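Lab notebook, design round three. We kept the backbone fixed and only want residue identities now. Task for the bench partner: fill in a sequence for the structure below.
Input structure tokens:
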């Protein structure tokens, strides 16, 4: 099963020259009595990984991915996004030129993300480059919202932290089981959502739908925003599961960059939707 993000194209951790997502065998990734221990009877998706070593060796000595690796790479990637956003906010005042630069940065970030998504191995340069350009876009985008709804970006950051923290808590508590069926249903819903949003964008572009259509700053837009945030939380659970399986089954250390890439994309998705939602609620005050 392929773990995915809102772009629906991020590859999972690699195995040899192929693809390995999270394990989908019955009860895969779970041992009886401990929902977070790998099932010894489940197929190891990294069994053929030339980097994998016997379990008796410590991860630091074998080149395997650890949670520390994931945290470090994620901090570097998210930190790059934050630095890019702060610099863009400080150096690019809200103007037509800034909007043009923001759109250009968003396009570059998208291209870099797509290139990385289709690569068989993670590229730190591509991932950090994506983060830097995404940060520039978010900086201008956030400043634009802040100029109209003062404090909206700060509230959106808090909201993103709350959603991601709550999702992690629910996941670790075992209230959500990431199974193949769960992933299929969620991805199908997310794909349908993206198709509807694409159609809505076309209708708005051709003047068929007014005020943004489904993405308006009214009750309907708020409902769509809430759905988008819930989908973002769903993708976070896929990311958590993929990271957990990668560590349990001995993914190579450089795969932690893919984990950081996926988490960053999902958190950016949630932040943008949260920012719009804050603006909608502020507009109705």
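Proposed sequence:
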């Amino acid at each position: 099963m392929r773990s995915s993000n809102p772009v629906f194209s991020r590859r999972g951790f690699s195995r040899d020259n192929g693809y390995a997502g999270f394990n989908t065998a019955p009860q895969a990734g779970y041992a009886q009595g401990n929902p977070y221990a790998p099932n010894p009877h489940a197929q190891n998706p990294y069994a053929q990984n030339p980097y994998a070593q016997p379990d008796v060796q410590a991860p630091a000595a074998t080149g395997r991915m650890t949670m520390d690796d994931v945290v470090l790479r994620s901090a570097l990637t998210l930190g790059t996004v934050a630095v890019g956003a702060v610099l863009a906010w400080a150096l690019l005042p809200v103007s037509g030129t800034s909007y043009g630069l923001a759109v250009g940065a968003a396009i570059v970030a998208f291209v870099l993300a797509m290139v990385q998504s289709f690569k068989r191995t993670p590229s730190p340069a591509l991932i950090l480059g994506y983060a830097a350009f995404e940060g520039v876009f978010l900086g201008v985008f956030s400043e634009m919202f802040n100029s109209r709804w003062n404090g909206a970006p700060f509230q959106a950051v808090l909201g993103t932290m709350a959603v991601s923290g709550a999702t992690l808590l629910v996941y670790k508590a075992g209230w959500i089981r990431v199974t193949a069926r769960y992933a299929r249903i969620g991805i199908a819903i997310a794909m349908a959502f993206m198709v509807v949003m694409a159609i809505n964008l076309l209708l708005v572009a051709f003047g068929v739908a007014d005020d943004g259509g489904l993405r308006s700053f009214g009750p309907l837009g708020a409902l769509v925003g809430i759905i988008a945030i819930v989908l973002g939380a769903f993708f976070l659970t896929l990311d958590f599961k993929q990271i957990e399986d990668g560590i349990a089954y001995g993914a190579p250390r450089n795969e932690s960059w893919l984990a950081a890439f996926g988490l960053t994309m999902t958190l950016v998705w949630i932040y943008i939707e949260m920012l719009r939602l804050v603006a909608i609620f502020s507009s109705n005050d």
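Keep this in mind before ordering anything: Strands lie at 14-15, 18-19.
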